[in-house]
Design brief:
Shape: globular
Largest sheet: none
Helix content: over 70%
Structural class: mainly alpha
Number of strands: 0
Radius of gyration: 17 Å
Number of helices: 8
Distance between the termini: 9 Å
Order of helices and strands: HHHHHHHH
Length: about 220
């Protein structure tokens, strides 16, 4: 356990970086994804499928891209985590109004941001390694996106199927191995299996981030990381 400092080493530079990233995310979430939804509908893709594709696009273009940049741009998890939680609060306040990707009967977009930020903060502060810290965020951004796209292509709607888990594993395993070796492999396999489970209000974003974080924390606690 190495720990972390919550105070950024370069406050002004990191504040500027999080501002630029926040503007980028807002562009992805609102005008870009809205246009993507319109384009899909015009091409004859159903409304439900279009919303689902757009959500996965946001996972990759916002969640995934930013997660990859966090270890490069930041020396502390404080600003990325606060930004993720702020976005979660904003999406909650606007729930139902961003109809091109939000679904009225669930809060998956809100939970995504909470899981993204909370897992990053916990792992960064426990391990002191920003790359290890972003692994769960990468799994829910890239891995879960692959799952959803495959299932949507096959079934035209949001559903659970083992082929989606295979797709997630195919994307998550290389990411996990590249960043954390066999620990990353284990975290990728566990989270890819857990993705198929939904436990009431606890959706797969939370389960993926939680399960992969627990694998990493257990490895770190036993000196395997």
């Amino acid at each position: 356990m190495q720990g972390c400092s919550l105070l950024p080493a370069s406050p002004l530079r990191e504040a500027a970086a999080i501002t630029v990233l926040a503007l980028y995310v807002m562009l992805v979430v609102i005008p870009v994804s809205r246009r993507l939804h319109s384009a899909l509908v015009k091409r004859g893709v159903g409304e439900e499928s279009s919303r689902y594709y757009v959500r996965k696009f946001i996972h990759v273009a916002a969640g995934g891209v930013v997660a990859l940049l966090v270890p490069v741009l930041f020396t502390s998890p404080l600003l990325p985590t606060l930004a993720a939680l702020t976005l979660a609060a904003l999406l909650l306040a606007l729930h139902g109004r961003l109809s091109w990707f939000q679904v009225s009967d669930n809060m998956y977009d809100v939970n995504f941001n909470i899981a993204w930020g909370a897992s990053m903060a916990a792992l960064w502060c426990y391990t002191g390694d920003p790359w290890i810290a972003v692994l769960p965020a990468l799994f829910i951004s890239f891995g879960d996106a692959a799952t959803g796209i495959v299932r949507n292509l096959l079934f035209g709607r949001r559903t659970k199927h083992w082929l989606g888990n295979v797709a997630m594993a195919a994307v998550s395993i290389p990411i996990g191995v590249a960043i954390a070796g066999w620990i990353g492999l284990a975290a990728a396999l566990v989270s890819s299996a857990v993705e198929r489970v939904e436990a009431g209000a606890i959706d797969d974003n939370i389960l993926i981030a939680l399960s992969s974080s627990l694998v990493i924390l257990a490895a770190a606690a036993t000196g395997q990381l």
